[in-house]
Design goal:
The chain is built from 42 helices and 25 strands. The chain is α/β, with parallel strands linked by helices. Among the domains are: 76 residues, no CATH class; 187 residues, P-loop containing nucleotide triphosphate hydrolases (Rossmann fold, 3-Layer(aba) Sandwich), CATH 3.40.50; 175 residues, Rossmann fold (3-Layer(aba) Sandwich), CATH 3.40.50.300; 196 residues, no CATH class.
Amino acid sequence: MDGIEELQSLSVISKVNEMLKNYLEIDQSELAEFIIYLAKKSKDLDEFNQLLNENDANMSFDFINQLYRIIITLDPPKQMDEWDNIIKSNNDETNFPALSLKNNPNRKELLLPSPTVELSEWAKELINKENPNIKLQNYKSNKDRDNRDRDKHKHRDRRSLSRDHDRDRYRERDIDRDRYRERGRGRDRDRHRRSRSKDRYRERDSSRDLESDTVMEELEEEIDILNNKKRYINDIERWENQQLLKSGILTNEEKFKLKSELELQEEIQPEVTINLNPPNFLKGQTIRSGIVLSPIKLVAKPEGSLQRTITTSLQIQNELKSIHHTHNTTHSTHSNTHSSTHSTNTTHTTASTKRVYKNILEERKNLPIYKLREEIINEIINNQILIVIGETGSGKTTQIPQYLYESKFHYYNHFLSLISPVTVTGPSDSNGPGSKGISSTEDTSTTGPSTVTEGKGANSMPMECNTTNNTKDIEDIKGTNSKGPLGTVTKETPIEGCRVLDTVTEKKMIGITQPRRISCINIAKRVSDEMYCIIGNEVGYCIRFSDVTSDKTIIKYMTDGMLLREILHDPLLNNYITIMLDEAHERTIATDVLFSLLKETCMKRKDFRLIVTSATLESEKFSKYFFNSKIFKIPGRSFPVEIFHSKEQEFDYLETSLITILNIHLNEKPGDILLFLTGEEDIETGIKILEERLNKLKNMNIPKLLLFPVYSALPQDQQQQIFQPAPPGTRKCILATNIAEASITIDGILYVIDPGLCKIKSYNPKTGMESLIITPISQANARQRAGRAGRTAPGKCFRLYTEKTFHEEMLPTPIPEIQRVNLTNVVIILKSMGINDFLHFDFMDKPCNEMLIDALDILYHLGALDDEGLLTHLGRKMAQFPIDPTLSKILLYSIEMDCYNEIITIISMLSVQNIFYRPSDKREKADQSRRKFFQSEGDHLTYLYIYNQWSNNQFSNYYCYNNFLQYRALIKVQDIKKQLISIIDKYKFMKKKMKIDNLNKTERIQKCICSGFFHHSAKRDEDSYRTLLDEQKVYIHPSSSLFQRNPEYVLYHELILTSKEYMRDLTIIKSKWLLELAPTMFISNNNTFKHSNVKIKPLYNKFEKDQDYWRLSKRKL
């Protein structure tokens, strides 16, 4: 606003304020400004009058007319220019052209080389070094190794089959037994091993060298990584050291050490600033261009009682933490709980081995879905897309795939003979490549229309298996669909009532997606037990970094992210005959993208079936999205659940929850308890408090209460304990996150406690921070939680919030994940499939344009997109890795920098949730042990040092036990390393390495990390750090190796919000690397000056004769 406009504004405010004072005796300038705002907003006098009446302004029409005329005369509204008209038009195609680029799926110049099957020698060598006791000379993949092991059991009888199955189940227990045997052999052998660890490490490093460098040069670089004790000194410490040198009080030896320390100081860093020039395809669309969009509404009532409960509870918990930490009064009997639960686990597993196959069949028959077996098979045959609604525990996840398997859906020609006389409902024929469509004939005897047009659903023709002359129909359904690599050929026996065309049949798979890894593994193991087969044969599962399938696999459970990876390489999913999207109501980001991609697959493949299952009542929304497809409802168990609401809102949900557990345990009839909490910390705290209170009640001879935690980071063997029935005379209490809402089914629950809160992931594109925040659950989640209490008997649900809160402060359904998380991974996958038009992409719930633009901006600076917004060859490579694009860029750059083995280790360590074990009764010792691993360069080098030390100790479990490390987490790191190495070798990403003369390996590793995380850079401020992109104030996390070190420039892996905004997993960098690796994001500041060439001249004594009398160097010490 210039001077004239400001004078006009002040003049009209003064005039309107004077009129209000004269006519209404009101002297408020804020009210005058509000009236002026309404007048400028209105198109005419009538609209101005209407707006004032809506705001309860008791003014006469004449006075309103006079106000409007004076305001428009003294300060007329500004005429909108062309740009304002564009913004006001609210046309996304005009405002965001980067989101509406033309799709181009056939870019031949970006095609990667055909993947290889056999690993190269360098990959075999690296993988063999991960476990020296296993030779993998013919190694292809983990899957092939498992297949060879499973082939040994091919001709065994049932007793031997069961024994082998149990051996796999007890493998983790054998590992623990070996650990105690190793401890019993004495500590002398371990001391001897540690004394020789350095010699062994040198031998291993000499064989690791894949270049022409000498062994000594490689050894020096490795020792520089592991044993480098160089410490960066800040400005204050440097000045103090210089004064000590001048003081003359140091000995010659001390002077030599101090001078050598000063000589190792880092060079002066050039000043960097943000490059405000966006690429051509993002001009005027980024946040730095001034675009501000309204965020997605995560909470129905931000100032409601539940939000006050969250704030109050967090304050109380922080106070309790400080009290326990200060007075050292925490006493934990958690180990006793683990021992008791371990003994219970032994009893349960022993009993489970005695359970015969007939009992499993009886359990299957007792499921609600069993009576609908034939009906649901007919519906799947008659409908290409089917929506199945059924409560958790109805059997839809485990039984529908088995029904399809028993009906021989996986035999391709037999499946075609079933659907050939049926007019497929769902999408209309797309006439796209690979599909000729189904030629329909007019027949008045059929019920409902025989074709579907304009994307609208239709009733299906009845199933007729005894048909003739259907060869042409089957060929029409096949189209030009090619056979996938599964393609095993077997003889088939025709089933009764259906004629099979060919005796030679191709097998295809039945795929089922799950939103969580734990549910994927548990369900696959359950189905393999029901089918009496070894996991990995007919039934297998595939999660990230773990593929337990084989060529025999027909029923394949997988996470939705893994299916998204498969559809990236095969959009038509030629290896599958049916896909079942289970738990679709959870609306994960991968599931939402699969909705649209599988719709397109259904349009191109008529020989394909899609089943969408949900446990909530959003059936109409799903049906409308999928071409008004048919809805099939499975009735749940008919046990009623009595719901109790709090009379008043509780403000400490954890304390109230624990009191409710004790009241139920002491006063209610037998039955297990399920408490929903927000996260691991709440669960562990709750278990500790309950154990203390139960110990005080021992004299009352109350029944025993078994406590079990359930959260995603919990080891798998401990997660299995919740499925064990409680021994007679005891009660089981499970403290779980929202993973127990729908992903797992627990029998015996009669009481559910619902605080009404959960923890969700939320991404803020303005700050670039993705954090877990506590929010109120939705009404659908609340109903889902209450349903857990009525599975086996009438139950009760205790809601720790009022009924008014349920209706007013909870959203009807949860916010889809695609509207609140970082979208870089999804965008690069869609780009690699040739999808560039995101505005017209068929999302069920469209993500925010601001988040899509932010993802495009990040990918452009990473080098995955060019100036036109199209995928580059580097971006195509980055899309092949099942990790974040930032980590993919680091991995690919490390190949050029000749430090890929170290970077693969660091990425693998970052991919597991937690490698440190910190028991509540030994926290100080665990922290001391962790500090022993700290490296001066940062946390990423610390992770590398930890893994190398574990490798030097022969990957020992005993070493992990002594150093408070999670052994199973490090084993998982090994598996991730093997898969990343195989991907690099599979797509031939190895290339000639760059010659780096001026950087040692430590600096090369730091530079590689900077190549991907440059947008997570921060510079030291007075008492904190400032992020370079948005000047956000952040702090170093206390657990970091750089805590209280304060280097000038750092990179962080993630930001977490607790009491402050902390940076976690940091690495020291040089600012010149930002200019070299991210020239599109950072530029050099022209006003940069070198401190050594600038002499500070204060203004207050510029007339003094001696200008330098105030300097410290002029004073005598």
